[in-house]
Amino acid sequence: MECLSHRIDQAIRDNLWKPLKLSRDGPPISHLFFADDLVLFAEAGGTQVRIIKQCLDEFCSSSGQRVNYQKSAIFVSANIRRRCARALSDWVGIPLTVDLGRYLGVMAIHGRVTRGRYQDLALRIQKKLAPWKARYLSLASRITLVKSVAASIPVYPMQVELMPKTVCKDLDKINRSFIWGDSEEKRKLHLVGWQTLTLPKDQGGLGIRPSRSVNLAMLAKCGWRLMKEKETLWTQLMRGKYGKNRENLDIIKPIKGSSFTWNSVSKTRELLKVGSGWNIHRGNLTRFWFDVWISQVPLIELTTGPVPDDIRDGMVADFVDEDGNWLTEKFEGLLPDAVTRQITAKAVDPLAGEDDVLFWQPTSDDRFSTKSAFQLMQPRVPSEAAQMWKNIWKLPVPERVRCFMWVVAHDKISINAQLVKRKIASSPCCYRCSTLEETTIHILRDCPTAAFLWARTVPPENQQEFFTLQPKAWIEKNLQVEATWTSEIPWNAFFSIASWNLWKNRNEGVFKGIGKTLSPPSLTQATKIKATLWYKAWVAPQNILGRRGTAVQRVYREISWIPPPAGWIKVNVDGAANGSQGPAGAGGALRNHHGVWIKGFVANLGTCSAIQAELWGIYHGLDMA
């Protein structure tokens, strides 16, 4: 295929092949190859068709490969007369088409965006998440399958198209229905709302990703590549047609009459604006007031008064002198003192050879990722129960038990008290004892069957607190206890498995009859056995992989000043900051090989991080030396 590419390029250099130009300043495009698939672009005329045929024939003759003309297609623009198009098709022996169809799940020719256009995508997802599969899978398995399918099937179209909101809602509905086991004949009980399911796990959700947010995150990646990648063919084409003479975020703007893909990418401008930041070098590309380079927001949003017009549009380089010293008189009274200290701790070198660099703030390596873009769109609401949710997902138990405890923590299991509210059950009373209302705390702790189990597994000195705690505190407390109280396994693991077994035993009585349930002594014994077996099965692969029981050997070594070789001078520096971002300082000393003090320095750095303070210490130390 590379030989064919060289042959086409040679035909272009010889002015034989006339490639397609999408814009005056964009690159010409003659061919696109992917594996053994080819797309060739040329002027619609008899001469060009002969040149294309000649190149293909020469390639086939030299390589031994053949072109399947019957599986190929010719597509011409609407400006070409149909009679001329048919003549070209007949001459070369390739069928004429008005629709190139889909490639990798994406329409090759973008037309009007409708709901029906994505019907095939919805059908493919429905096929993967068929209702019959839900009947044979646990809740944990259904959640895993939804995450897998949602992360793979819609990927290609979501990267280049902003799907209509109705389509995204349809995809979410398919996922939601499968999680709760809906079928075509019957809609099952949805225990927890969709808004909760889409929350991060540490906020009480399952981390299910809404289709609309995933779509925007994928498109934001295209937008980021448009800003950062200037050498790839597709970015050159898009920049030449829509982003002429613009850079960085100024490129990502909606343009009237532009393509559907460009309009889709432009919808992510605000997301890219929130996540983008600037690494300062010369300060020549970063706007002092309107770009993000010091804090998480532009400085214009932190001002304590109106910014004078003569400095409002200034670049960072306009606020330092030739030596990189800050001209604090230009902004000192316009920003809070803490922000001013952060600015003065920033190093700027107007004479540096490197321009400012745009980077992606949410990631540690400054590179864009769709995961971080998605998380940026998700609301982060502080949760008082964050530790409880973390404890649930860290339990050393099977995933189905974790999912059950997640539902319990939301107080959403299908107890009679809940079913009466939904008008599904007629009585709120407990199925076992038939006297008290069947609530979560009753069925899992206070019912005589449950109380019998706990009385024989909870240590006597802990039983008073265990049986008197309020429901929420009771769950949180028992999920925290890792001490071994019974069966030689952590209590939080036994507690979770025992709760799951109590619920399972209750359901067998409801659906199969009271004769199918275990007596309290038998249930207690069966729970201990099951908990021990499950825990051992869970912990065995962890030990094999070396994740548990690995002792960390601590090595001690003496740390002292090491003198330099005779005739040399050594500079030692250090920097420190109070907190991740706080008041910082640095200091250093010059000593000879005898350890005799020669010179030293101290520096008040303003507000910065510890690593910045260390770097400032190195800078001042080298400057002093």
From TrEMBL:
Q: Which GO terms describe its molecular function?
A: nucleic acid binding; RNA-DNA hybrid ribonuclease activity
Gene3D superfamilies to which the protein is assigned, alphabetical: Ribonuclease H-like superfamily/Ribonuclease H (3.30.420.10)
SUPFAM superfamilies according to UniProt: Ribonuclease H-like (SSF53098)
Tell me what this protein is called.
RNase H type-1 domain-containing protein
Record organism: Linum trigynum
Under the heading CDD domains, the entry gives: RNase_H_like
Fetch the InterPro entries from UniProt.
Answer: RNase_H-like_dom_plant (IPR044730), RNaseH-like_sf (IPR012337), RNaseH_domain (IPR002156), RNaseH_sf (IPR036397), RVT-Znf (IPR026960)
Query: Where is the RNase H type-1 domain positioned along the sequence?
Result: 565-625
Q: Which PROSITE patterns match?
A: RNASE_H_1
On the tree of life, the source organism's domain of life is Eukaryota
